[in-house]
Predict the structure.
Amino acid sequence: MTHPAPTTPRRVALAGASGTIGQAVQRELEAQGHLVTVLGRPALADRDALTAAMAGARAEVVISCIASRSGSRKDAQEVDYKTNLVLLDAAKSAGAPHFILLSAICVQKPLLAFQHAKLAFEAALAASGIGYTIIRPTAFFKSLSGQVKRVKAGKPFLIFGDGQLTRCKPISDRDLARFIISAIDNADMQGKILPIGGPGPAISLREQGELLFQIADKPARFTAISPRLFTAAERGLSVGAPLSDWFAEKAEYARIAHYYATESMLVRDPATGLYGADLTPEFGEDTLEDHYRRLLEDG
């Protein structure tokens, strides 16, 4: 799945540039000659400052890579929904014709607080009257790299169940940035929700481990963890949730862990409820194998 890059430089206001995806989007925007105004956290937290920044940017396109860092209910409501809503209002007031939102593919089956917050803003954006594009990527390379050091140190790779419970088509920061930017001046991507993954095939957790061990030239070793442990933890922590924000937050983290241990990051067929690799579009050229190889070589 490819889309031509626009030939005309545009004035772009970018929110969420402090994150890894936002940084990649900023680099790619500048490399393609767009005029970028970065909307930092102070501006996003102050409506007057944001309004002034948007007016100064005279943005033709607003890109939001804003996302809550923890996924907790309070953080998700504040960041994924409210902060994006403030940004949308500022974009409309400034007359920006196009708003591009980085969302997430997991909102297809919303069981978590941050997923409901993202969906609430997606709905607000679609109903706002502004031209929009909503992009729902699959897993990022970064989210699949947490066990590189374990493998390099000779430790076993941790899997859930048999390691085949979930699959994904991970996409690199650079490829996702290019896909996001390809929505600029692209009529075919306007007014749409676009799921996107990287070059296939879809890969399971166990296959990720096998790939890492192969590149590291080490015998494959796995330790299995039951996802039911997260369910048990969530139930225990939920007992204290009505009385303590700490318990409520930790219970949500347990729910998040169980979700990612059991749900694939692929397009879900609404008719069957099943995830399909063939339903998940692909974009880009960076592979997970090359990413793992660089991490192992660079230490």
Notes: DSSP finds eleven helices and twelve strands in the chain. The radius of gyration is 20 Å.
